[in-house]
Design a protein that fits this description.
By secondary structure, the chain is of the alpha+beta class. It has a domain at 52-144. 16% of the residues lie in helices and 47% in strands. It is built from one helix and nine strands; from the N terminus they run αβββββββββ. The strands form two sheets. It has a five-stranded antiparallel sheet, with no helix packed on it. A four-stranded antiparallel sheet has the order 1-2-9-8, with no helix packed on it. The longest helix has 23 residues, at 23-45. The chain is rod-shaped, with a radius of gyration of 32 Å.
Length: 145
Amino acid sequence: MHGSEYKDGQHSTPEEDPRPKQWPRVLGSLAIVAMMVGMMIGRLTAPDPTQLQQIDVQPHGLVVWFNNEPTLHGEWVDGTLRMMLAAKGQPQNGQLKLNGKDVNWRVSQMDAGLMLTFVAARALKGDWAGTPQDGRWRLQVNLQE
């Protein structure tokens, strides 16, 4: 064999197959189907987003109810309390009485979730604690002067 020319009707290299190549299409289709099934399973097994359900005003603070435990970060800034909650909900505001004096509270939407803010004419102190109760999450915020 000195070249790839015809000799008695045969080549030294095989002829190109005129049929289309189906194997890359099959692999591509399987990859797409596997990705779609994985996305559906992920949506079914993902936890429900944390949702603010209800706010109850108490004599010395608030009780905030959620469907799941939210990620919470609270800090005292110049006598005001700010709590960043990784949850969804509607903006709300209100007022409560602490030793006969007004304390304003507000729930506002932020990019990362909800911001619960307490503001009064004097510096506030206090604490907060969350516990599961009746299949929901209860966040108790207690305020002091």
